[in-house]
Specification:
133 residues; binds zinc ion; 2 domains; two-stranded antiparallel sheet
């Protein structure tokens, strides 16, 4: 019996030579079930999702409202390195912060922050800066 030289991609349904599939120890014929093209498409797809849309909290808007430059914010956050303003713009572009980083940022801007949670029609408010981090 001959070793198969091609298989069908379970994503695009095309039959392709085996070297069009990344190797995988657990896959059929030692290859992944989807072809390289589809694998790359999927990776690109997920990174696009992660990149799209603005961050949930617009830190830049908070900083602008406080009348602070990137460097002002960097100093307020205790960053002394020359790259402080770069670090601040990275924080602003993030989409998932540690609560403590977010709160430090709010404090540095002199902001007040409240978390409003609505559950079953009940609205609960939490003073975030009252939280001891
Ligand atoms: Zn494919």
């Amino acid at each position: 019996m001959n070793e198969p030289t091609e298989k069908q991609c379970s994503s695009c349904r095309q039959t392709k030579p085996l070297d069009e599939f990344y190797s995988a120890a657990t896959g059929k014929y030692g290859r992944k079930s989807i072809c390289k093209t589809c694998t790359l498409d999927k990776q690109r797809g997920t990174s696009k999702v992660q990149r799209s849309g603005p961050p949930p909290v617009d830190l830049k808007a908070i900083r602008n409202a406080a009348g602070m430059s990137l460097w002002d914010m960097a100093r307020a956050l205790g960053m002394t390195a020359r790259s402080g303003d770069v670090n601040v713009s990275q924080i602003e572009k993030r989409k998932d912060w540690k609560l403590s980083s977010l709160l430090n940022y709010f404090r540095a801007a002199g902001a007040e922050a409240e978390l409003v949670v609505t559950v079953r029609g009940k609205t609960l408010r939490f003073n975030l800066l009252g939280v001891d981090t």
